[in-house]
Amino acid sequence: MVLIGILIINGYLELQRTRSQLFNILESEALVVIKGIEKNSGNMIAAISQDRPFWPSPGAAEGSEDTLGIEDLLIERLINIALSLDQEQARKPPDPQSLKKRLGQFRLKDIYFLKAEPKNTDWKELPKPLRTGVPFFQKVLTGKARLAVFRGEGPWRQSISLAVAVARRFDRGIILMILSSDEYVFLSRQIIIQGFLEDFSGKGNIAYLLVEGPQREVIARTGEAFPADSGQEQERKEVRSGDPGLFWIRGKTEEFLEIVRPFTPAGKDQGRIRLGLSLKEVNPILEQAKRNIILMGIVLLGLGMISLFFIFQLQGRHLQKMKEMEEQIRSKEELSAMGQLAAGVAHEIKNPLNAISLVVQRLQKEFHWPNLEEQKEYDRFTRIVRNEISRVNQIIGHFLMMAKPLESTFEEQSVIDILEYVLEVMGEEFRQKGIKVIKEGEQAVPLIPCDRFQLTQAFLNIFNNALEAMPDGGEIRLAVNRVQISGSGVQSGGNTISKLKTRYSELHRDCVEISVADTGKGIPADGLKKIFAHYYTTKERGLGLGLPITRKIIQAHEGTLEVKSAENKGTTVIVRLPLRSSRRENALSPKL
Fold this sequence. Notes:
Largest sheet: 7 strands, mixed
Mean pLDDT: 76
CATH class of the domain at 408-586: Alpha Beta
Helix content: 40-55%
CATH topology of the domain at 408-586: Heat Shock Protein 90
Distance between the termini: 66 Å
Number of strands: 19
Strand content: 15-25%
CATH architecture of the domain at 408-586: 2-Layer Sandwich
Low-confidence stretches: 53-63, 487-508, 581-591
């Protein structure tokens, strides 16, 4: 769960970082556009201020080519306003208040609806330059022209910067519009800014541009419908906390990134500019980044789970080794305690037992019963006493063997001679229980360096276990073969038998393998893991020391002991003993 939580948090932070980087790129592009609009419009606005001074004489320059071009656009705009008002008044003449409000939308104050008669009251409100002499719109008023323009030439420029007279189509007379110097500059600035906004509109990711005055009045705008105006704005939030100049706008059908900055063309504060960038092209990138992050998270989660699995596996092996080490330490402690106990038992009991055994032997030889039946009964009891004394001595011997380090005397011996001796010792018991011994294997195997007494004891324990596993008779298959160790296992006749795990495997390439397989009741799976544990036994009178002693003897001979068993199918014990040298093959033992 912690790993999943870390991946989710990391994925979220990575997605936020990607979105922030994309927004920063878009913001940088938008700032370049804003700076370009500010610089270009500022130059034009400054040109208007310089080209339209209040010239004191008619001979002064009337303006540059750019200024005249803007003035032409301004005249065109006034003509359109006049035609629009003419059409509206023809449908329904507005009252003075609504007309004043309507003119306020165009930022115009001086607009006149004049008839051909000079006695019309509107004539009295005209500026003095237009009431003296022949007015510039005389031809329009008399129907000889449709349009007349007064550009504020000469000394009248201070009071009239621009005037346009348009003949009415839906009524008699004309519509006269007069611009003061402030109105002229404001409308010219509006036209300049609008022109540059339209130049940048639709380029790149720009969705809309809006310039607002100090009172948040709209100076110029272009582009798609604004989210707030169209009613599609659903959510507006700051992209960076505490930064009121960058907003993320979520609409019903589209998302925008809006950059708001002060608008200062020519270094003069003109309000603010709002630039909206469409996120249509950015959102697929974010979606792809989200998918990549999710995919990477799944991959990392998988790798993390695999890593945790291997960590747990290694930890399990480590714990297993720790348990094995603890078991070895406990075993050594048991052996130490057993050694002390065995020494005490041997010291305190062995001598009295020998004395008792001697007394029993003497009584058995010197004391005779006159009655034959009584003599047999007497002999049986004394034999039982002697056997039990012998068993106690054997127990003491086992304790001593497990408690003390083995002191081995290695000589070149024939493993087949040792096995023949063991079979001879146990032959009578095999015959009594109906056990048949079948000998298999090679005709001759090399001599091996060993302690004959210890190996005899080890094989006696192995055959004795096979004997006790078959109370109702059976078969024992004894096989002796020479095997060779390879990197993949033990090779015998080209077949891999099992892997010989021993630190001597690289030193001794050749081994003698002794296999003892019985047809007894076998060992249960849970008991197979405990057979080498001290005192573990399934026999009523067993001590559980036979196999541990056998393994200790085999290990002292640098060999291995392997037990394979299946319940009700028998048990196979495999002993492998290394040869000192493969060059000794000429010293062969007799045929088995």
